[in-house]
Each structure stands twice: as structure tokens, then as C-alpha cells.
Amino acid sequence: MKIVFFSISFFILVIGICGSPLLTRLYFIHGGKRLWFSSFLQTGAFPIILIPLLVAYTRRLHKSTGTKLFYMNPRVLAAASVIGILSGFCSYLYVYGFSLLPVSTASLILASQLVFTAVFAFLLVKQKFTAYSVNAVVLLTLASAVLAMHTSSDRPAGESSKAYILGFVMTLGAAVMFGLLMPLVELTYKLANQTVTFTLVLEMQLVIGFFATAFCTVGMVINNDFQAIAREARSYELGETNYYIVVVWLAILCQLYSFGVLGIIFSSSSLVSGIVVAALLPATELLAVIVYHEKFQVEKGVSLFLSMWGFISYFYGEFKYNNSNSNDNSDNEQKTELDLVAP
């Protein structure tokens, strides 16, 4: 069952991680300027989760009477609330970086989240590392480092060095926060004191989305973003209608991204989720080169190769490990049967 859920989550994550950065950048390069509003869009579509939750609740109601509306217990609710607030702050750092950097550059910086995910996973959930997982972390980190050595050539025309450095720092801060959030979600699953089900994953995403959106809403109120949205839409370079199309689809794709991450953590671990995200970021870079005609230097090609190598290395190691365990269990069962029939 978890393999099926992992596959679905992976597919959803691919759509979210490839589409949301491109639309975030599209919002900014054609006249969007509201940082808190764009942060709000990263989690603002969380009510979509109510649809599958309603289906799950209806199914539970048919099976038994007295079914609770929410499956999660108070401990998980409190943890998801804190994660949600941190996620809102992470969204702000993320969009701030994307407002100043090309998509390809910002994506490669975000790939460094794998290092932070590995460190926090080791500290918080006692993540065990194999030679293959270490190799994957090293290769994906090198993939980011190769590009980081030549990012200055990607600085947008007319942007100051100070603004570019600020964007770099903000995006790196988002990578650190994202690297912390994934192990925190896994830790919440481990300490939930209840069975972790698909319904619990959905409820956690709903709560995380609500508190992250609430955090960004406060920023919007302080920054007077609500009054500025209609004015910004009218002056948007692609037209007012396209402005609303961009922001609506941005919110939907970001929600798919979040669901994909939580789903992979549920069906595997935070480290696997970090590896998948890091491995998919080069695809975003390639799309940015195609869509926005960003430069594709040799370094980006090397980065893509290293990322794919790391991704394949990890999952080959997992396959080999699981296959070995399966054979060991089969041998143990056969040995037990022989012992039972022995005179």
C-alpha cells in the first residue's frame, strides 16, 4: 500500500516542484511585487484538502457510528500548528529569493536543503545512513556546489550586487528551514501516539496550511497587500485576467508540492523526501532555461548529471537493501520450518 502511495505522492510532487517555481518567477518578472501575498499563495490553497478529507470522513461514517470529525489527536494538532508557522516563514524566505534570482539559480541553492535535511534527520529521528545514502547526499551536494561557483553570471540585468546577494541569502535560509521542516514532520509521525494513516497525513497538511497561511496573512495585513492586489492586477504586464490565472494556479501547484512532500515522508522518510526534491530540482532548472531562456552553462549540465547519479545511487541502494532483507527473512522462515520437522 505504501508503495502505491509513494508513487502517487512522487507524481504529484513532480508536477508541483516543476510548476510552482516557474509560476512564482512569472509573477515577479511581469510586475508582481507583493512578497507577503506571494508567500500566502504558497499555502493558501489548503482548503482543497477538505475534498479528500470529506470523502474519507464519509467512508468512516458508513463503517461505524460516532466517528470523530478529526482523526488527529491534540499532540499532533499542536505539532502541526508549530510546523505550519515555521512553514509560513519558510515560504516568505523562498519567495523573497525567487523575486531576486533566476529560477535556475534559486533552484540550485534550494538543492542544498538535502544537506540540512540529512543533518536534522540524524539529530531528530536518528536517521540511519548507508553507503548509498551517503553517496547520494554527497553527489547531490556537489551538484549544487558546482553551480554555486558560477552563479554571479546569472545576475538579472539591472539588479545590484547587494540585491543579488540578499536573494542568495534568503534562498539559502529557505533551504535550511525546508531541511528542518521535513524531519519535524517525520518526528511528528513517530511521536503521534496513534496510527499514521492517509487521513492523518491529509489532516496534518490542512492544519499546516492553515497556520502557514495565517502567518502570511498577518504579514499581508501589516504590509497593506489586500488593498494593493486589485491595483497590481490592473497594471500586470500580461493583463488582469492572466494575473489572476497565474496566482490561482500558483496556489494550486504549491499545494500539490506540499502534499507530495508529506506523502513521501509518510510512505518512506524525510531523507528520501529530501533526496527526491533535490533530484527533481535540475528538471526545474532545465524548464527555466526553456521557458525563460536562462543561461545553461556547462556547470548546469554537470550538476544535472551528478543529481541523477545521486538519485539513482540512493534508490539502487534501497532496492539492494530491501532485496537482501527479503532473502534473509525467507532463509529464516525455511530454517524455522526445518527445525519444526526435525526429529
Helix-strand blueprint:
Layout: H1 2-29, H2 35-41, H3 50-63, H4 74-100, H5 103-110, H6 113-125, H7 131-148, H8 161-190, H9 198-222, H10 225-234, H11 240-267, H12 270-292, H13 298-341
Helix pairs in contact: 1-11, 1-12, 2-4, 2-9, 3-9, 4-8, 4-9, 5-7, 5-12, 6-8, 6-12, 7-13, 8-11, 8-12, 9-11, 11-12, 12-13
Protein name: Probable purine permease
Main location: membrane
Subcellular location: Membrane
Number of strands: 0
How confident overall, as mean pLDDT?
81
Helical residue percent band: over 70%
Q: Mind describing the biggest β-sheet?
A: none
Q: What Rg, in angstroms, do the CA atoms define?
A: 22 Å
Report the portion of residues in β strands: under 5%
Count of helix runs: 13
Distance between the ends: 41 Å
* Secondary-structure element order, N to C: HHHHHHHHHHHHH
Question: What is the approximate shape?
Answer: globular
> Could you name the ranges where pLDDT drops below 50 across 5 or more consecutive residues?
none
Transmembrane segments: 6-28, 35-56, 76-95, 107-125, 131-151, 163-184, 204-222, 243-265, 271-292, 301-317
GO molecular function: purine nucleobase transmembrane transporter activity; purine nucleoside transmembrane transporter activity
Membrane topology: Multi-pass membrane protein
Keywords: Membrane, Transmembrane, Transmembrane helix, Transport
